[in-house]
Amino acid sequence: MISFLLRRFRWMLIGAAGKELARRLSERQVQDATAELADRLPDRAVAIADKLPGDILRAAGTAQVAGRTAKRSARLSRDLAQVSRDAAVAPQRARRRLSEMGDEWADQVATDDRSLRARLIAQTRGRDAATDVLLGGRTSWEDEPLPQVPDPVPTGRPEEKVRTRVVRRVQRSYRPLRRSWQ
């Protein structure tokens, strides 16, 4: 029966325990805020507040704790909103960065292509034409195509073909031959 009641009312018990814990923690915070407020006020103001009906200093401490809690929760919600905004903006930022990287890559490829063309043109058409290509003036000679690259040279050392004499027969022993037909 007790286990049935515990299962049935466990959330109510957990909620009541949480509420009591929160009340004790907030009560300590209110007492600290009240003591801090009493220390900051002049003694004459504290004496007048004690003579008035109700506990004005405790109400002010409670208001101060409520203000701090509200400020903390507002800061937390602002931080969460910033995190969610960053998460939403991150793909756009990544796409923009990838686009910038692609532009940088294309610029670098164009620069390398221009410098290689300038080196080749310096060899074929002279330094003036190469300088023109490097400075971005005339970038191509479509009407005058670049010279063809020669066929590759075979790699390695050339091997000498040593002519070997063909032997008529294989010598089977070390005995000298007595007749030429043997």
Describe the model.
The chain is mainly α and 182 residues long. The protein is 69% helix and 0% strand. The chain is built from 4 helices and no strands. The protein has helices at 2-40, 43-51, 56-124, 127-134. The mean pLDDT is 80.
Concise summary:
Helices cover 69% and strands 0% of the residues.
N-to-C span? 121 Å
Percent of residues in beta strands: under 5%
**Unreliable runs:** none
Structural class: mainly alpha
Topology:
Elements: H1 2-40, H2 43-51, H3 56-124, H4 127-134
Helix pairs in contact: 1-3, 3-4
What attributes characterize this protein structure?
182 residues; mainly alpha; 4 helices; 69% helix
